[in-house]
Amino acid sequence: ALAALGKLEPARRVLEASVSKWPNALELHVTLARVLFDLGDQRGPLMQMAELIEREPNYQPAWEMGAMLLAESGQIERAEAMLRKAVEGDPSAVSLQFLLTELLLRTERRDEVVARLDILEVLASNSAALMLEFGALLAELGDAGGALEQFKDALEADPENAEALYRLGTFAEASGHRDVAQDFYGRAVASDELHADAAERLAALSAPD
C-alpha cells in the first residue's frame, strides 16, 4: 500500500522487515524487488528474482517480475529469452504468454505476435480480464471486429465488469451511437466509481452541446 502511494522508502523498510520475518512468503520478495528497482537499484532486484526462480522454478510472479525489470532496464533480449524459457516450461502460464506477446509487439515483431494469437485466444477464454487483454491486443493490431467480440464476451462472463463496459462504450461512441455509449459509461461508473476514463467520457457526453 505504501509503494502504491509513492512512499517507496517506508515501503522498503516494511518489506525488508517482513521478508526477514516471513522468508517463505514469496510475494513479499517480488514486491520488494519492484520497490528496490523503483528506488534506483537495478542490479539487486534482478539477482533476487534469479535466486527466487532457482529456489522456486514454478513460481510465475518471479519470472514475470524478472522479465519486466530486465525490459525496463533496457535489456530487451534478456527479457525475451527469460520469457521464452518460462513459457516453454509451462505453455499455460497465461500472464507470461501475454507479457512475451507485449514485448514482441513493443519491438515491432508483428508477424510473431499474429502467429501467437491462436494460443492467446485459448488462454484468454477462461477469464473476463484476459478477454479484455486479448481484445486490447487485437485492437492494437487493427482487428476492431475481433476486439469488439472479446469485449462482448468479457461482459457476458462478468456483467458488472467496468472495463468491459467502458470498452464497449468507446466502440459505441466511435460508431456515433452516443446514447448507447453514455449508457455503457454510466454502467461502468456505477460498477466502479474510480474508473476515471469511463467517468471522463460520461461527463463529456452528458455535457450540453
Low-confidence stretches: none
Instruction: Please state roughly what percent of the residues sit in beta strands, choosing from under 5%, 5-15%, 15-25%, 25-35%, 35-45% or over 45%.
Output: under 5%
Overall SS class: mainly alpha
- Give a count of the beta strands, DSSP E runs of length 2 or more: 0
Report on this model:
The protein is mainly α. 76% of the residues lie in helices and 0% in strands. The protein contains 13 helices and no strands. The protein has helices at 8-21, 26-38, 43-55, 60-72, 76-89, 94-106, 110-115, 117-124, 128-140, 144-157, 162-174, 178-191, 196-206. Helix 4 (60-72) runs parallel beside helix 6 (94-106) and helix 10 (144-157) runs antiparallel to helix 11. The mean pLDDT is 92.
Task: Give structural attributes.
mainly alpha, 76% helix
Q: Quick gist of this model?
A:
The chain has 209 residues and is an all-alpha fold. It has 13 helices and no strands.
List the helices and strands and how they pair.
Elements: H1 8-21, H2 26-38, H3 43-55, H4 60-72, H5 76-89, H6 94-106, H7 110-115, H8 117-124, H9 128-140, H10 144-157, H11 162-174, H12 178-191, H13 196-206
Helix pairs in contact: 1-2, 2-3, 2-4, 3-4, 4-5, 4-6, 5-6, 8-9, 9-10, 10-11, 11-12, 12-13
